[in-house]
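Hey, why these numbers?
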Amino acid sequence: MSDLYELTTDVIDIASVARRVVPPECGATVTLDGYARRFTKDKATGEVRETEYLVYEAYEPMALKEMAKIIERAKAEFEVSAIGIAHRLGRLEIGETSVVISVAAPHRKAAFTACEWLIRELKRTVPIFKKEVYADGEAWSEGEMP
């Protein structure tokens, strides 16, 4: 069973990512479905703004390399067998899936822990940039586009 990491402009089928990383030695798969939410709280001001839609962009060659790195690190640190990460690029409407992370492990605790670690590391290290579009403007978050 091989790991999966991809960037796509297509709608992500959550089940297809989750079911592609199920080796026979595993007893649990934890899957995160991250999707576009309507309201966003500004971390600096505490202001809540209504989001109309999101736009994701990435430096794709580097993003894919970094995704592979965090998968390898997670497999070295946690007792997991297989990992799948799919991230959507382009315009996303509210409620559409932006990222799916699936982690298969012999036991559920390791799968939960690794899945949480992976989403934090993805946001921290992978060059994927999110623009939130509001009725009165827009803002880049989780990295600033030049």
